[in-house]
TrEMBL record:
InterPro entries: Ig-like_dom (IPR007110), Ig-like_dom_sf (IPR036179), Ig-like_fold (IPR013783), Plexin_repeat (IPR002165), PSI (IPR016201), Semap_dom (IPR001627), Semap_dom_sf (IPR036352), Semaphorin (IPR027231). PANTHER family: SEMAPHORIN (PTHR11036), SEMAPHORIN-7A-LIKE (PTHR11036:SF144). One of its GO terms (biological process) is axon guidance. Belongs to the semaphorin family. This is Sema domain-containing protein.
């Protein structure tokens, strides 16, 4: 017998002070979503949302594909990218960098075997010809990146300041180019110092300050542990900072190299339980009006396949870089190197530059916000994270987190000030598949998920799946939903509903649906041949609830599997005649889900009117039997 609930409970690690009591979720099948097959030449480098809902553009290495999920057109238009500089030369470049800029156009870079080109393209409407034009304001980027071969899958930031533009880009792996690179800034490329470390980057974050001289970029990456001890972790999570004002050192020392780069380890786990997560998988960033309050949600896992999400504030990261000692050796001169960004780094003292060249790692680690210490720890292979940090009017602040799974599903998670709660699992694809990318279009609350074969639009305001009563709706704790006009629908501003807390006790009077029919004598009558095998089915609307079968002879708990809670009768006889009722209970709210009246038939026995004959029952996997 498979006990799904027990298996899920054993999969979680609960952090002290963190209330994570409801650990199951509602399954949303892929049949309810819109989808397009990817029939192009290559998988997307990046998918970009239009300002209008339902319209996205897939940027491949050489082609653009335009998807309109509001159209009945089954074959999306596809166009080859034409590099304006190549139209008379016959050259081609594979696109590897795609960034939206502040002017409404899209910045692209692509590489051939020998060089890299950058240009701008207007994707606001389906162009009759997908031309990418060079721009005078991109001149410095184009000149400095020309001999650098970009790689697909790296992270980048396109930053505009007045008429100046810069491109920051990561290079992962092992070798002299591994690290953060800047292109632009008077045609000079700024590069990392050479090192012998293997690093793989998972994200970049821009942090703007009141004083623009102090603007910084944070890079998040995992580094292979060079400690070969049997009990050492294979990977170590890191965050690096660099100053946008950095121009490198003078000609004889750190010329065209970062002078502001500092590195600090990230910690995610529970020191008391001696559990930690060291392999950084992905990050999602949430900007705030005050730079100190901006947040980083980091997805990590450990060698046992357990995943965790930890949250860090930029203030905490900044404090480590500003206050921590550097790692060995700790001479006095090494402790006094500047932490603030400077106006002209090429004029730094030679001794300071030598110290910078020698050591850049901080002694202190960056720790997560205490309440977030392992927001969610689950025995699942998560592969990506996206955060929607909108605030719900009339309720406490909350965050909705989307986590992609290795098998192709998406978990939707609610984080409040007090707890973390799994709301639902979406299954965009019909079979197990790897998710290449996913993002939310906040105005429409549509999630766009792509694999190597399909791109799917997932409506995450799927309130109707939570049931047809106010209690069921509120117990879902889905902040995108609310109870209004006798149905669970898109969010409502009624403060009585307590959607975030799941407090269904406000479902009284005018808020309660006309539900008396749910508890009427609505009973299915079934006649079974003597000795037959039969499954009674109980549809599961919420896996947060506990399900119980009340039978004529006993009361048995039931562990749901997928969308059903099954009761198996191995061999029907008159001793099993009677009423069978499946009930659910969640946070004190109990209701009848389904009810059957069973009768066995034997030779010569009369069957009453209204009973349905059942001759054959399929052999299904059940949760328990007699």
């Amino acid at each position: 017998m498979l006990n799904v609930e027990s298996d899920l409970q054993s999969s979680f690690f609960l952090v002290p002070g963190l209330q994570l009591t409801n650990i199951s979720f509602i399954l949303i099948p892929g049949s309810v979503f819109k989808r397009f097959p990817l029939q192009g030449h290559e998988k997307p480098v990046k998918i970009i949302a239009d300002t209008q809902p339902g319209i996205i553009t897939s940027v491949g290495q050489t082609h653009l594909t335009f998807f309109n999920f509001q159209s009945s057109e089954k074959t999306p238009p596809e166009q080859k990218v034409v590099w304006e500089e190549c139209k008379d030369k016959g050259c081609e470049y594979n696109i590897s960098v795609v960034q939206r800029n502040g002017r409404g156009s899209t910045f692209l870079c692509g590489s051939s075997r020998v060089e890299t080109k950058c240009c701008e393209m207007d994707l606001t409407a389906n162009p009759t010809e997908a031309r990418c034009y060079p721009s005078e304001r991109l001149q410095h980027i184009t000149q400095s990146i020309k001999r650098f071969i970009t790689k697909e899958g790296e992270h980048s930031l396109f930053i505009e300041s007045g008429n100046q533009t810069s491109l920051y880009m990561t290079s992962s792996g092992y070798g002299e180019d591994v690290g953060i690179h800047r292109f632009g800034s008077q045609s000079q490329r700024l590069a990392p110092q050479s090192h012998n470390k293997e690093q793989h980057f998972v994200g970049l974050m821009l942090s703007r300050r009141e004083d623009s001289l102090q603007n910084r970029i944070y890079a998040f990456y995992k580094q292979r542990n060079q400690d070969t001890d049997l009990y050492s972790d294979e990977w170590i999570p890191f965050v690096s900072q660099i100053c946008l004002a950095d121009v490198g050192g003078p000609r004889n020392l750190l010329q065209n190299k970062w002078t502001s780069q500092m590195n600090a380890r990230l910690f995610c786990g529970d020191p008391e339980r001696k559990v930690h997560f060291s392999e950084l998988v992905h990050v999602a960033t949430v900007d705030a009006d005050r730079w100190e309050e901006s947040k980083v949600y980091a997805l990590l896992r450990n060698e046992w396949g357990v995943s965790a999400v930890c949250m860090y504030t930029v203030a905490d990261i900044d404090e480590v870089f500003m206050m921590s000692y550097f790692k060995e050796p700790k001479t006095e001169s090494k402790l006094n190197r500047p932490r603030e960004c400077v106006l002209d780094s090429s004029k730094l003292d030679g001794e300071i530059l030598n110290n910078i060249k020698e050591v850049s790692e901080m002694e202190q680690w960056v720790k997560p916000v205490k309440k977030s210490l392992s927001l969610l720890v689950y025995r699942q292979h998560y592969t990506g994270i996206y955060v929607d940090a909108s605030q719900h009017s009339g309720n406490s602040p909350y965050t909705v987190i989307f986590l992609s799974l290795a098998h192709g599903g998406i978990h939707k998670v609610l984080q409040t000030e007090n707890d973390t709660f799994l709301i639902s699992e979406y299954r965009p694809f019909d079979s197990h598949t790897h998710i290449d990318s996913f993002f939310l279009h906040p105005p429409s609350r549509k999630l766009y998920v792509s694999s190597s074969k399909e791109v799917v639009e997932v409506d995450v305001v799927n309130c109707e799946h939570y049931g047809n009563s106010c209690e069921d709706c509120v117990l879902s704790r889905d902040p995108y939903c609310g109870w209004n006009n006798n149905r669970c629908t898109a969010e409502t501003r009624d403060p009585q509903q307590k959607m975030i807390s799941g407090n269904y006790r406000g479902c009284s009077g005018r808020l309660r649906s006309a539900r008396p029919t749910a508890e009427k004598e609505d009973i299915s009558k079934v006649v079974l041949p003597s000795g037959s095998r039969y499954f009674l089915q109980c549809p599961v609307s919420s896996l947060h609830a506990e399900y119980t079968w009340v039978t004529p002879n006993s009361r048995k708990s039931c562990s749901p599997k997928e969308d059903q809670c099954l009761l198996l009768i191995k061999s029907m006889s008159s001793q099993y005649d009677g009423v069978y009722e499946c009930r659910s209970e969640e946070m004190g709210y109990s209701k009848k889900v389904v009810q059957y009246r069973l009768r066995s038939t034997a030779p010569g026995r009369t069957v009453a009117t209204g009973f349905v004959w059942v001759c054959v029952a399929a052999a299904l996997m059940g949760s328990f039997s007699w």
